[in-house]
Amino acid sequence: MLVVQKFGGSSVATPERIKKVAKRVVDTKRAGNQVVVVVSAMGDTTDNLIDLARQLTDNPSDREMDMLLSTGEQVSIALLAMAIDSLGEAVTSLTGPQAGITTNDVHAKARITGINTERLFKELDDGKIVVVAGFQGQNDNGDITTLGRGGSDTTAVAIAAAIDADICEIFTDVDGVYTCDPRVVPRARKLDCISYDEMLELASLGAVVLQPRAVEFAKHHNVVLHVRSSFNKNPGTIVQEVSSMEKQMVVSGVAHDLNVVKMALYDVPDRPGIAMQVFSALAERNINVDMIIQSANRNEVNDISFTITRDDLPKALPVMEAVTEQIAAKGFTYDDNVAKVSIVGAGMVSNPGVAASMFDALAEAGINIQMISTSEIKVSCIIRADQVEKAVSAIHSKFGLDSENEASTAC
Ligand code: ASP
Ligand code: MG
Predict the structure, then answer these.
(1) Quick one: 23 and 151 in the same domain?
(2) Is residue 23, in this structure, part of any structural domain at all?
(3) Candidate from 69, 95, 135 with most ligand 1 atoms within 8 A of CB, to mutate
(4) Which pTM was predicted?
(5) Alpha carbon 117 to its chain's center
(6) Domain tally for the chain?
(7) Could you report the per-residue pLDDT of 363-374, keeping only the tens digit for each?
(8) 29 and 168 co-located in one domain
(9) For residue 297, what is the domain's CATH number?
(10) Which residue, 12, 86, 264, 313, could crosslink 305 as a Cys pair with Cβ 3.0–4.6 Å?
(11) Which domain does 68 fall in, by range?
(12) pLDDT digits (tens, 9 = 90+) for 98-129
């Protein structure tokens, strides 16, 4: 088999851990596989490099930031290659550019545009293990670019797609994808299998085991992912296309997200073009808006509420002030004492009453719902931040996800 194995920062945080990773990679090779390994920077290296830059300037150029941050992964590939070599296996380390990874020109959040696999295949054909630096590539000018935080996942998936690997294993510090955060609800269960769409929702809803972009990429190129622990040999969670709808669980996971702020515009004139003005002003500043609710019209005005991420709040406030004046609304407020809880499940489409059960669970727990949004495979509610643990726990039990119930997993 042709296998891609990705090890995150915590899996290579110390020399001892690098030795363990080397052993695992070598075992995989000796079991008769060809192996490409993708690694992240050791432990908190990337954060530490960002801190270093901040000590010099508030406004470093994106190009130099990429030059700086890409060094973290370069340290890891060299050390891992040395560790593999000392176990007696032939190995080569490659930077992103050496591995043929090209990207667009958007420094700090570049997108992979192609992978020239010639070098990768040459090394594999020579019988070597290939260790590739995650999170980086090069643009058309030959400059180093990085793929955004957590980008090594995307490197691994993109390489797996380009070389048509049989599996892409993502090694991390948890045993797989859980029905909810085990730190919040200890009764959380590990899922054996989950669809790309469900994983995408969970990944973007704050259950961060995988970079959402990596999941998108995997879905697009049909790369089967195996999310598993780097500290044990237990099978983890398979992420793949799920064909048979009946087999799917109605709800496979409960996600929560504290990185939310609720905004409300009051007494907004009710006429065409208003929503366009509000949301295009936010879009121009690259502020992502998530849930949007417009209340019923009363006396030619209504209220518009929506959510953004906490990080975007400083950017959003001046925009909101300007917009309020521009559209002659009465005013706006925001509330950052909120959280979003969501249920995700591909089987939801064909099961009426799922949303009602979620609301029921919240009501029984005495939790007030401030906003609701739904999609085919997701229902999200905005609630008070300090009630989030209680909410996740109540919903998790309501849908029979607690570990003592041996319900079948997603696929
Ligand atoms: N080292 C980079 C980061 O910390 C990329 C990664 O870990 O995937 O974001
Ligand atoms: Mg990392």
Answers:
(1) yes
(2) yes
(3) 135
(4) 0.85
(5) 26
(6) 2
(7) 999 999 999 999
(8) yes
(9) 3.30.2130.10
(10) 264
(11) 2-173
(12) 999 999 999 998 999 999 999 999 999 999 99
